[in-house]
């Protein structure tokens, strides 16, 4: 099972620095480098999203996942993406409780104007290791385990049916 980890920071720049560290540590932490995203909220309240993604099998990207997630959480359209049939079904699954309401509310509460957050999808064998490695940046850790069924659907949508 994968775990979606969000770490909120009280400023706009720390999440970016933390994402660079997460990218360097990706191999040891069992984080796919593409499964890292940063969202900042400037002092005017506008959201800015940075992802580390590239195209994968079937032409889908982690960027589409982040677009779905951030669109659902903050009503932020990311990258003007078009949602295909597989990801459209996944959107409904995410919205219907794959990411619990408490986690969603805590993320929304955490991202006030002038703050940022780091998001990572981490394999269940090492989420604590990932959090420990990122602890030097401080922040508020929010975690949400993705149900196995949703994780499998996500992998199929992102990497094709053979993943």
Automatic annotation (TrEMBL):
InterPro entries: DUF1269_membrane. Keywords: Membrane, Transmembrane, Transmembrane helix. The chain crosses the membrane at residues 64-90. This is DUF1269 domain-containing protein. It comes from Paractinoplanes pyxinae.
